[in-house]
From TrEMBL:
<keyword id="KW-0808">Transferase</keyword>
<dbReference type="InterPro" id="IPR058678">
    <property type="entry name" value="ARM_PUB"/>
</dbReference>
<comment type="pathway">
    <text>Protein modification; protein ubiquitination.</text>
</comment>
<dbReference type="InterPro" id="IPR011989">
    <property type="entry name" value="ARM-like"/>
</dbReference>
<dbReference type="InterPro" id="IPR003613">
    <property type="entry name" value="Ubox_domain"/>
</dbReference>
<dbReference type="GO" id="GO:0061630">
    <property type="term" value="F:ubiquitin protein ligase activity"/>
</dbReference>
<keyword id="KW-0833">Ubl conjugation pathway</keyword>
<comment type="function">
    <text>Functions as an E3 ubiquitin ligase.</text>
</comment>
<feature type="domain" description="U-box">
    <location>
        <begin position="10"/>
        <end position="85"/>
    </location>
</feature>
<dbReference type="InterPro" id="IPR013083">
    <property type="entry name" value="Znf_RING/FYVE/PHD"/>
</dbReference>
<dbReference type="InterPro" id="IPR016024">
    <property type="entry name" value="ARM-type_fold"/>
</dbReference>
<protein>
    <recommendedName>
        <fullName>U-box domain-containing protein</fullName>
        <ecNumber>2.3.2.27</ecNumber>
    </recommendedName>
</protein>
<dbReference type="InterPro" id="IPR045185">
    <property type="entry name" value="PUB22/23/24-like"/>
</dbReference>
<dbReference type="InterPro" id="IPR045210">
    <property type="entry name" value="RING-Ubox_PUB"/>
</dbReference>
<feature type="region of interest" description="Disordered">
    <location>
        <begin position="84"/>
        <end position="103"/>
    </location>
</feature>
<dbReference type="Pfam" id="PF25598">
    <property type="entry name" value="ARM_PUB"/>
</dbReference>
<dbReference type="Pfam" id="PF04564">
    <property type="entry name" value="U-box"/>
</dbReference>
Length: 424
């Protein structure tokens, strides 16, 4: 009993349920981001009828729970590495954590982390650390248990202090290369996301995105993509690094060699631009509309949908609509993608034209839509069966601008009759 109590006291605090203070077996996350033992939090909600988070006392509206698989694996790895195993069982079926290779690599990881905290020559140590982490999930979990996250984040934010120090800059690049291999998801215990969400961390990543090597920039984009579903305050980066950051991201989005980096960049841009109108103004100022329109013609289906989504977001603000209609290929490029990519892409194209026709229905714009075939394709949409929001947007465009388009001989006579535009 005394030994059992001693072992209980040695468990890390993060492995204990905040309600029972016992080691968690089925950890789950609630809407406030706190992790509890499943049976304890369910009892709190459904037996005691509580509507607060036990740890923070925040009022809760969403009572959904999500399994915290990462923390569960961390607990299992910790147990395997700290619990003594009988010689008979270890000889017959040794656990992965007690294998000679795992023990050797874990010891090497401990040594490398200590070196990173004391030695000025960090790049080689970070590269070795990256090689160990790439061996598999077990090494990644060991890294997190050993406090590796905190060590690497210290290196990342150091460039805010020693921005002109080449070695500090290179260490930051290599640290991001290591961190991109760690699991980041909504199922995490929140520690990784919390550290990345700090203003200093995001500022450092924005600097690397602007001035780092291509490999480091790809690593940074990979991390931002993984974090895109989290509740980041993107304004921290936009306010300090906005235009320069967007220019760097647009450069990566245009990269024809690294298609993965290009696709990831577009996903991150969608998330950032969807977060605020201010971010869209910064992106437009950085030349986003011009870059995206020129990328559109030769883009693949997946990339095309993302580009159209970004163009649509930019067209939701006045500067974006002006930038779109002023580009000589804007209307033509979007017209070509209508019906030629996917149903999703076609819906986005209609939204773009609806925005342009609502706010900038100039004679030039309406004429280009007719010349480039957009009007002809929109007519086809009207003949599609069944009501839809896309069809309603299309009909609204014809009701507002049909009189201008009806002057062209190719405009369908039956549509003139339907819209009440018969020639007298």
């Amino acid at each position: 009993m005394e030994m059992e109590r001693s072992n209980q006291m040695e468990f890390p605090q993060d492995f204990r349920c905040p309600i029972s203070m016992e080691l968690m077996k089925e950890p789950v996350i609630i809407s406030t981001g706190v992790t509890y033992e499943r049976k304890n939090i369910e009892k709190w909600f459904y037996s005691y009828k509580k509507k607060t988070c036990p740890a923070t006392m925040q009022i809760i509206e969403n009572f959904g729970i999500t399994p915290n698989h990462t923390l569960k694996r961390l607990i299992l790895v910790w147990q395997n590495s700290h619990s003594p195993s009988p010689s008979s069982s270890s000889s017959s079926s040794p656990s992965p954590s007690s294998s000679p290779l795992s023990s050797f690599k874990r010891d090497e990881m401990v040594s490398l982390l200590k070196t990173l905290g004391s030695s000025p020559f960090k790049v080689n140590s970070l590269r070795k650390l990256k090689e160990i982490i790439e061996l598999g999930d077990e090494m990644k979990l060991d890294f997190m248990i050993l406090g590796g996250l905190e060590v690497l984040f210290q290196l990342i934010v150091q460039i805010l202090i020693d921005g002109s120090d080449f070695m500090a800059f290179r260490a930051c690049e290599e640290a991001l290369g290591v961190l991109q291999h760690l699991p980041i998801s909504e199922e995490d215990d929140g520690k990784v996301i919390e550290l990345f969400s700090k203003p200093e961390s995001m500022k450092s990543m924005a600097i690397i995105l602007q001035r780092g090597s291509k490999e480091a920039r790809v690593s940074t984009i990979s991390i931002l993509k993984n974090l895109a579903n989290s509740n980041f305050n993107w304004n921290i980066v936009i306010n300090d690094q906005g235009i320069g950051m967007f220019k760097s991201m647009l450069e990566l989005a245009s990269d024809e060699i690294s298609t993965k980096a290009s696709s990831s960049t577009l996903q991150v841009l969608i998330k950032i631009l969807d977060s605020s109108k201010k971010s869209r103004s910064k992106a437009i100022e950085a030349g986003a509309m011009c870059t995206l329109i020129e990328l559109l013609p030769d883009s693949t289906r997946s990339k095309c949908e993302k580009i159209l989504q970004i163009i649509k977001l930019l067209c939701e603000c006045a500067e974006g609509r002006v930038a779109f209609i002023e580009h000589r290929l804007g209307i033509g490029a979007v017209s070509k993608k209508l019906f030629n990519v996917s149903e999703m892409a076609s819906k986005i194209c209609v939204k773009i034209f609806s925005l342009i026709c609502s706010f900038h229905p100039t004679e030039k714009v309406l004429e280009e839509m007719m010349v480039y075939g957009a009007v002809k394709k929109l007519v086809v949409l009207l003949h599609m069966s069944g009501p839809s929001s896309t069809k309603n947007r299309t009909l609204d465009m014809f009701k507002k601008h049909g009189s201008s388009w009806s002057r062209y001989p190719c405009f369908p006579s039956d549509l003139k009759e339907y819209l009440g535009l018969q020639c007298r």
